[in-house]
Specification:
The chain is of the alpha+beta class and 225 residues long. It has a single domain, classed as Transferase(Phosphotransferase), domain 1 (Orthogonal Bundle), CATH 1.10.510.10. 38% of the residues lie in helices and 14% in strands. It is built from 7 helices and 8 strands; from the N terminus they run E-E-H-H-H-E-E-E-E-E-E-H-H-H-H. Helix 3 runs antiparallel to helix 4. The protein is globular, with a radius of gyration of 17 Å. It is found in: Membrane.
Length: 225
């Protein structure tokens, strides 16, 4: 599957264990969004939309095509690696869990990364497909806004990207959340549609979130416009 980082081999020497993966020339999405000062110019909207679609395809493959299915449990921008063509590849399966096709969840320790962990994980030690979808929604918000999931350097009330975006939408100011480098009249319709998808992903009610398969279909439709 081209949207997963491929395992090329492994090495076992004494007590040392190494996994060898394909080299990703452009590093992580987190690096491009949050570390590079020129990311706005180099990571245009077309690239960001392709990264979103590739990541969704990788997630859908884990959830639906693998046998047994896989919950990633740590979807985040630093675990989305980019090849020389900026094609997205999901990486880091250290927290992943296998799940039988007839099951909807696994009981496990609550793990993940601050800002990406679904709210329901704080109430129950159960990991679900919809938890991965929530984390994917955070990545979509990062692609749209250029903001980190949580940024304590920002003013109170806008530190958490989900709360800030939902508040801006409630005030009818959703177009103001888009990063200036990607916001233009020619792609505003696509931006708004992806924002709606992101908001569906991060809704507090897991049952209201889309499936990864729905995400792929919606993002493909937007990409084809």
């Amino acid at each position: 599957m081209k949207n997963l980082v491929l395992l090329q081999g492994y090495c076992k020497v004494g007590n040392d264990r190494l996994l060898i993966y394909s080299y990703m020339e452009n590093g992580s999405l987190d690096y491009w969004l949050h570390e590079r000062a020129d990311s706005g110019a180099l990571l245009d909207w077309r690239k960001r939309l392709r990264i979103a679609l590739g990541s969704a395809r990788g997630l859908a493959y884990l959830h639906l095509s693998c046998d047994p299915h896989i919950l990633h449990r740590d979807i985040k921008s630093s675990n989305i690696l980019l090849d020389e063509n900026f094609e997205a590849h999901l990486a880091d399966f250290g927290l992943a869990r296998l799940i039988c096709a007839y099951e909807t969840h696994v009981t496990t320790d609550v793990v993940g990364t601050l800002g990406y962990i679904p709210p329901e994980y704080g109430q129950s030690p159960v990991a679900t497909y919809k938890g991965d979808v929530y984390s994917f929604g955070i990545v979509l918000l990062e692609l749209l806004t250029g903001r980190r999931p949580v940024d304590m350097c920002r003013p109170k009330g806008s530190r958490d990207v989900v709360s800030w975006v939902l508040q801006m939408k409630a005030e009818g100011r959703e177009t103001e959340v888009f990063h200036p480098s990607i916001h233009g009249k020619e792609n505003e319709n696509q931006l708004i549609r992806v924002l709606e998808i992101a908001c569906l992903c991060v809704t507090s009610a897991p049952k209201s979130r889309p499936t990864s398969q729905q995400l792929v279909a919606w993002l493909e439709e937007i990409s084809d416009d």
